[in-house]
Each structure stands twice: as structure tokens, then as C-alpha cells.
Design goal:
The complex is a heterodimer of chains A (about 80) and B (about 170). Chain A has helices spanning about 5-15, 20-25, 30-35, 45-55, 60; strands at about 5, 65. Chain A is mainly alpha-helical and about 80 residues long. A two-stranded antiparallel ribbon of chain A has the order 1-2. The longest helix of chain A has 11 residues, at about 45-55. The chains are: A mainly alpha (about 80), B mainly alpha (about 170).
């Protein structure tokens, strides 16, 4: 997956745990864990804005695009 | 997820079990009759109304061929019924939108298409075996509804596949 989630880095910078973030924004720890470990297939804008509001950051702080050799095939909608 | 209607599902599962057993029983009965016709031709075909004289040989060959078609349809019907039973099981478990069910529906669609092809084969046999002296009347008639049902099954399988894919996507959405 060419999208890298840097939630760990931002949480560390804000000295916040995933559990605390989960309690603040009302998203389950399980779902946040799926996001943090890069296993999520998609992120809702509502989730992204809730995380950015809680961590006082921008989406670009959380997500990074790193194209690989197979990029383009994964992103193609079929 | 809301639990599906348990009573209706139990009745459906029971009905499918009965149909599976009946189908297999029918296959055995047809096979037994075909076998008997090889050893006691006069008795078997006499009981089935075949008269001596003109057209007898063609009629007997046609009826044996129809028995073979009947036996061939048994595994196809078994495939349809067992796949349907498996789909119903997943509904009972509360998780029907899985990729395996999309595959099962597609299998059912292709198998029913095969059964319809066999049904056309029956028409061909009836046409060839019948003569002016003795006709083979099995009440065959072409039904566009049956072919429409085949098309419906393919469409349903595709819709199920899309729905399953969308659900899998949604499950990975945070």
C-alpha cells in the first residue's frame, strides 16, 4: 500500500496514547489500531478530521504517499 | 447484525434436505429402471406403454437416452441444491455476504444453465424418437421463463459479488 500512516509519530509528539485518542474522538481502539498499522483500506473524512482536531495537526502530518514499483495497479478501481 | 428469521430458515434447510434426498433417490430409481430395461426390455417398455410394431426400436432407444439424460441431471441438481443449502447455512449464521457465496451463486447459475441444456436435449430426443406410429409424449414445452431465470441467476451472482466486494471494502474503512 503506497499510503503510509504516521499516526504513531504524531501521537508520540503529542505525548498521547492510542487509548487516549480513542476516548477523545469516540473511535474504537480496534479501528484506530487498524489505521495505525496500515491495514485500513479507506479512511472517512470524518475520522481524519476528528484525529486532526484531537492531535492539532494536518492530514499531511498523518499520511504520506510513497509510490512503489506496483503503484497504479493497487489504486486502479475495477 | 439483525438475526434472520429462524423459522423460515429452518424450514428452508429441512426442505432442501428433503429435495437432496429425493433427487438422489430419483437418480437411483432411473438408473435401476435403465438397468432393468437391458435385461427385461419387453416387460419394462411394455409397462411404459410402448407397443410392438413400427417405431418401437426408435422409441426404446429414445426412452433409454432420456433415462441417461435424467441420470446426468441428478449430479447437476445435487450441485444446485447443496450449494443453495450452504448459502442458507451462512444466512443462518448471520454472515451471508461473503465471497464464497458469490462463487456458490455463480456455480448455481452455470449448473442451472446446464440443466436447461439437458432439457433441450430431451426435446431433441423426443423429436428423434417419435414416429407417426408411436409418439414419445413427455409433456415437454419450451419455457422462456426458465431461461429468464438462468439470466436472473447470473445477474444475482454478479450483484452478490459486487456487494461482497463493497462490504469487504467497508470493513477495512476506518
Amino acid at each position: 500500500m503506497p499510503i503510509i500512516v504516521k499516526l504513531d509519530d504524531v501521537l508520540y509528539a503529542r505525548r498521547m496514547t492510542l487509548t487516549e485518542l480513542s476516548e477523545r474522538i469516540g473511535i474504537t481502539l480496534a479501528n484506530l489500531s487498524i489505521l495505525k498499522t496500515g491495514k485500513a483500506r479507506a479512511v472517512r473524512f470524518s475520522t481524519l478530521s476528528a484525529i486532526c482536531r484531537a492531535l492539532e495537526c494536518q492530514p499531511a502530518d498523518l499520511l504520506e504517499y510513497a509510490p512503489g514499483p506496483e503503484d497504479g495497479e493497487e489504486d486502479r478501481d475495477e | 447484525m439483525q438475526r434472520p428469521n429462524g423459522g423460515a430458515l429452518r424450514a428452508t434447510r429441512a426442505l432442501l434436505r428433503v429435495l437432496i434426498a429425493l433427487n438422489l433417490g430419483l437418480g437411483v430409481a432411473i438408473a435401476a429402471m435403465l438397468l432393468a430395461s437391458l435385461f427385461a426390455e419387453s416387460w419394462v417398455f411394455g409397462a411404459l406403454g410402448v407397443r410392438p410394431g413400427a417405431g418401437r426400436a426408435a422409441l426404446i432407444a429414445g426412452m433409454r437416452l432420456m433415462a441417461v439424460i435424467g441420470i446426468a441431471s441428478v449430479p447437476l441438481a445435487h450441485l444446485v441444491l447443496t450449494r443453495l443449502r450452504d448459502v442458507v447455512e451462512t444466512v443462518q449464521q448471520g454472515d451471508a455476504f461473503i465471497s464464497l457465496n458469490a462463487t456458490r451463486l455463480r456455480t448455481i447459475a452455470w449448473t442451472v444453465l446446464g440443466l436447461e441444456a439437458l432439457h433441450l436435449g430431451v426435446w431433441a430426443v423426443v423429436t428423434m424418437a417419435s414416429s407417426r406410429a408411436q409418439g414419445l409424449d413427455v409433456g415437454w414445452e419450451f419455457s422462456p421463463t426458465r431461461w429468464l431465470a438462468v439470466l436472473l441467476l447470473f445477474v444475482l451472482a454478479q450483484v452478490f459479488e459486487e456487494g461482497t466486494r463493497m462490504r469487504e471494502d467497508l470493513e477495512g474503512t476506518v
